[in-house]
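User: Please predict the structure of the protein below. I'd like the answer in structure-token form so I can feed it into my own downstream comparison script.

Assistant: Understood. Taking the following sequence of 410 residues as input:
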Amino acid sequence: MQKIIEQRDVLCFHDEFSGIVWNLKTAISFSGRQGPACRHTFLYKEKYGGADRRTQTQAVTNAEPEFAALVGIDWADKKHYWSLSTPSGRTERGTLDNTPEAVELRMAELRLRFQGRPVAVALEQRKGALIVMLSKYDHLYLYPVHPRTVSKFREALYPSGAKDDTKDADLLQEILAQHRNHLRPLAPDTKEMRILQAQVENRRKLVDERTALANKLKDTLKISFPQVLRWFSDVSTEVVCDLLTRWPTLEDLRKARPATVEKFFQQHHCREESIRQRLDDIKNAVAATGDAAIVNPSRHMIAAWIGQMGVLRQSIREMEKEIGDLARQQEDWNIFDSFPGAGDVMAPRLMAAMGTSRERFDSAASLESPLRGESTAVLCRHCAGKGSQWKKRMDTFPPGVSEVPPPDVS
């Protein structure tokens, strides 16, 4: 039985498997080696003069290499603890300084000792200094392990709960040896995609910092200039920062001529109705306090936070432009840009969340994991009224090229 997937309402990615007719018959073989061994058969169709003809059958095997050693690394800020085992059953332990020079020397020793054969490494990290340093060695296969997984193993094997770096390294090495089929090796995306992902993450960090500053500014305005909170719902905007820079207190604002204040709001493209309402509020407003011990310190803190938010706002604006340019350079930008309601804001973030290693997604359920959280929630709100179209596309996501992935414990 064969199932032909139509292009309509299907989320498709163009890659080396494009044009495949998916065969529901899947031959699964088992081996004594650790890790999955799953074989999928695909039937290609090509058109010659309007006639379809099967021309080739390709087998894709997801078998891992024969590892010369298994290594567990319990990382730390200054010194890492490692545990190494070989197929002969021999176990070695040691420490590794957290410096590029020490890592380079140790990895060169492993390459020389095992003659460049693959070495599997398990560590409680998906990103960070150690991952960055180890990723450049092509003979290493990195297996991130979720810290909660190690914690549960430690709790089961050592009920006392005592944490020991050497034992944790042994646990990581044991998880790698006995439960590697539940781990997913780290597969870096393309350079262009990693740049996009880094910029998307950096933008989120800057937005979080701006939000934290805005909350501090709100707390100060509640006791020094609460009228601003009634006039504006978002105090991190440019109009609020410019207003407080020019008139940091209600007293300063009331000294200004109404025509000057009106011109200020007009220059910031405020609505006429809002401008009239604010001018009336300024005329009838009462200061929250006249205590100089509160007003004067608040004036200085407001100026400091506004200055920082101005820098962040400019950086976010420049970063968003760069993110948009990077996203449009990706070959499948048109697919993400076509999602209902995604637009220039959400489409690059969805693209960064999914990456380029999309063979791990075989269904909408497996696609949900990397998109779970803020991005999906924002998209669902952003696509109000269009959710059925989005769900329809995701529910018809075509099968991937590998077996159904195990639970992602990393």
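That's the full token string. The two ends are 36 Å apart (CA to CA).
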